[in-house]
Structures are given as structure tokens and as C-alpha cells.
Write a structure and sequence with these properties.
318 residues, alpha/beta, Rossmann fold, UDP-galactose 4-epimerase, domain 1, seven-stranded parallel beta sheet, two-stranded parallel ribbon, 11 helices, 13 strands, globular, binds uridine-diphosphate-N-acetylglucosamine
Length: 318
């Protein structure tokens, strides 16, 4: 039974990794500054984890958190493109300085491996699809630049200090516990909760933009595989985590109508600044090196997510 540290454990993805590790009988420690994470997300596992309210920018706290740890899953971030456009300094502090801190702490504590939540936004708006890891990055937003800079730090800490690092470029992860309440929330969390309440969702643009929406269980399994894969195959490398398929927002809205029972129309508004048009991953590399396979496809994931939010709204109304 090894000890694992999750940064951003109170977030949607961090708390999902925590539950998966506990199910495997592993020991879990987690840090979160609760800026975007919520205690609610770790409520049912609170007595089984070592939770510490701490900020990535507190190097001493990170050093203490890394003590005795086998593997770090670095999920903590301010995960928003539009927010980073408004506050590039804040994005850089959390998403770059915070990463360097956890890397220093992990290096000094002799952690075996750090798995990092990188972002598909590194690819930017280049027309070539699907996106492959060997393509030249072309980040647009400050968020994308920060996430990419941290990826380079991952590689640097492997090359300079021998700390094993693996970066997973997430493509639009969605599922239960994703926060639907912020203006920066992911589109699926927003649409599902709005449509279940009978409220009209808004599509920014004409709805032809497409994404490789990836259900949370796939991202969790990629993290567990990345933590265990042989060093020679993964250390210092970057992998797409996605499904290798894409859907556009109009198709998604139609599917959600059936799943939620919403009978109204969608509203169209101006395209969002900094948006990219299409996103689709080539997942060959992750399949070969990690043994990764998307176990839950988009429709199945969407159905499960709708059921979860439905359960939440019933519980809240009860
Ligand atoms: C981007 C990044 C992703 C990052 C995420 C964090 C890319 C490819 N992806 O995702 O890596 O983790 O930001 O914020 O750059 N939309 C609507 N109506 C809404 C909300 C959104 O139409 O109410 C549209 C958006 O304009 C966009 C699409 O839905 O075209 C997806 O938006 P969103 O869920 O915010 O994710 P991305 O911006 O693709």
C-alpha cells in the first residue's frame, strides 16, 4: 500500500482520482486551497484521506505534503481559458509557479513519479486534426501558455534531476461533480443542469464547433496507468487523454434533449473570444505506451452524467 498525493483533491478530477485509488486499497493524501475545489466533493471519503488545506504557492506545506509519497497527481490549477484572459498573472501564479513548487517538493522528497494534468489547449487553433503530441504547440490564451509551460517544467525536472514525470493532455473532461455554477464552467455541466431545470441553454456561435469530450472515468484510468507504466515508456513524455472522436454542440444539444426531457430550443449568442473551432485527439501514443483505452464512450458518459445531476437535484429538492 503506497502513499499517493493528489493536488487539487477537492476538485472534480482530483476527487475522482482519490476515490479510484482508495478503491484499490491505496493510501491517499490531498491538498487543496478550496479556491475552486469544494469540501462537498470529498465529503464521503473525508475519513479515509489525509486532507490538508494548503496552497501550492506555500513551498513548506508542499514539502511536508510530499513526505513519504510514492506518486503525485498534480491536478490543482485555475482551469479556465476566459478567466486567464482576465487575470493572466493569477493564472500564471497558480498554473506555473504552483507547478514549480510541487516539482521542487517532489524532487527533494524523492517522490518516484509526478503525473500532471496538462491541457489540449496547448494545440491552439491549428487546422490539422486529429492533434498529435509531436505537433508544434500553438497556445492562444494565457491559460494554455501556463499549462504548456508547466509541461516543459515536467520534462525539465526529468532531464535535470531524474524525477519521473508524465504529462497528460486532457481533452474536455466531463462527468459527475464538475461545477456547473461558474460562468467559466464546462459546457456539458452547464447544459445538463440548465436543461434539467427547464432553463434554456445558450450556444456561443453556430453550434458547429466540436470537441473530443472525454468522460471522467477515462481520465482517471489514464492517471492510474501513467503512475504505473514502465519508466522507459513514459518518463519525461506527454500523452493525449481523450476518446479520439468528436461531436459538435448542436448534436450534443439534441442528445441532451432526449436524455434530460427538455423540450425547448437552444439560444444562439455571439461566439466566445479565444475559442477554438474543433478539437480532436489522436490517442495512439497513450494506447501504445500506457495501455490506455477510453472505456466509456461519449453517449454513455453523457447519460451517466445526466443521471448524476438528476440525483443531485432530487436530493436538493427532497
Ligand atoms: C478549454 C480547453 C481545455 C480547458 C478548458 C478550461 C481547448 C481545446 N480546451 O476548453 O483544455 O481545460 O478550456 O476552461 O482549448 N459553450 C457554449 N455555451 C456555454 C458554455 C460554453 O456554447 O454555456 C461553448 C464554448 O464557447 C466552446 C465550447 O462550448 O465553444 C466548449 O467550451 P468549454 O466547455 O468552456 O471548454 P473549452 O473552451 O473547449
Amino acid at each position: 500500500m503506497a502513499l499517493h498525493l493528489i493536488t487539487g483533491i477537492a476538485g472534480f478530477i482530483g476527487s475522482s482520482i482519490a476515490r479510484a485509488l482508495l478503491e484499490r486499497g491505496e493510501q491517499v493524501r490531498g491538498i487543496d486551497n478550496l479556491a475552486t475545489g469544494k469540501r462537498e466533493n470529498i465529503k464521503e471519503i473525508a475519513d479515509r484521506i489525509d486532507f490538508r488545506e494548503a496552497d501550492l504557492l506555500d513551498l513548506d506545506a508542499m514539502k511536508e505534503a510530499c513526505h513519504g509519497v510514492e506518486c503525485v497527481y498534480h491536478q490543482a490549477a485555475i482551469p479556465s481559458v476566459p478567466k486567464s484572459v482576465l487575470d493572466p498573472l493569477g493564472s500564471n501564479q497558480a498554473n506555473v509557479d504552483g507547478t514549480v513548487n510541487i516539482l521542487i517538493a517532489a524532487r527533494d522528497a524523492k517522490v518516484r513519479r509526478v503525473v500532471y494534468a496538462a491541457s489540449s489547449s496547448a494545440y491552439g487553433d491549428t487546422p490539422t486534426l486529429p492533434k498529435r503530441e509531436d505537433m508544434t504547440p500553438n497556445p492562444i490564451s494565457p491559460y494554455a501558455v501556463a499549462k504548456l509551460a508547466s509541461e516543459y517544467y515536467m520534462v525539465s525536472f526529468f532531464r535535470c534531476y531524474g524525477l519521473e514525470t508524465v504529462s497528460l493532455r486532457y481533452f474536455n473532461i466531463f462527468g459527475p461533480r464538475q461545477d456547473p455554477t461558474s460562468p467559466y464552467s464546462g459546457v456539458l455541466a452547464k447544459f445538463i443542469t440548465q436543461m434539467l431545470r427547464g432553463e434554456q441553454p445558450t450556444i456561443f456561435g453556430d453550434g458547429s464547433q466540436s470537441r473530443d469530450f472525454t468522460y471522467i472515468d477515462n481520465a482517471v484510468s489514464a492517471n492510474l496507468l501513467a503512475a504505473q507504466a514502465p519508466t522507459a515508456k513514459v518518463a519525461g513524455r506527454v500523452f493525449n487523454v481523450a476518446t479520439g472522436t468528436r461531436v459538435d454542440l448542436n448534436q450534443t444539444f439534441e442528445l441532451l434533449k432526449k436524455m434530460t426531457g427538455y423540450s425547448g430550443n437552444v439560444k444562439y449568442a455571439a461566439e466566445r473570444g479565444g475559442d477554438i473551432k474543433h478539437s480532436l485527439a489522436d490517442i495512439t501514443l497513450a494506447t501504445k505506451a500506457l495501455g490506455y483505452e477510453p472505456k466509456v464512450n461519449f453517449e454513455e458518459g453523457l447519460q451517466r452524467t445526466v443521471e448524476w445531476y438528476r440525483g443531485q437535484s432530487k436530493a436538493a429538492g427532497a
